[in-house]
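Quick start: what a row looks like.
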Amino acid sequence: MPPLMTSRYDLERFGMMPNPAPRMADLFLITGYVTPKTLKRIIITYEMQPDPKYVLAHGSCPLNGGVYWDAYNAIKHLDRYIPVDVVIAGCMPRPEAVMDGIKKLMEMIENGTADGWKRYKENYEWYKKNQDELFGEGWREREARRWIPWLMDKKKKEE
């Protein structure tokens, strides 16, 4: 991603800029292989993003583990846990391929075919079942207790 911000590729001409805050983002880039520990954060961050939101996966690593396909801790099918709108070929993809993927996503948005966020809402029970099979039921609450203690304190006070 850093090469895309240089003057040679100038990603800002597409109206895009990196933003670490999920509440202001509409594009989620998954740029490497995914482990269960990172998948938890990916799901929580994805659910924090406002609609419409889109997912762009870099290379084969997020979808099938890439070179770590036989590792016990690599997630093999990211699309079972969150919807993926565009997958960019290459490991790691060149900046030109990332820009092509972004252009493809922009075309899909214009055509109305980039609807992963709608599929997530419509099929939430299916995605949640897959997430719960991997992490166990109640994993969101356990995670929230670890990194959002003020939310849990507020919930206790309301009860």
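That is the whole record. The radius of gyration is 17 Å. The chain has one domain: 2-158.
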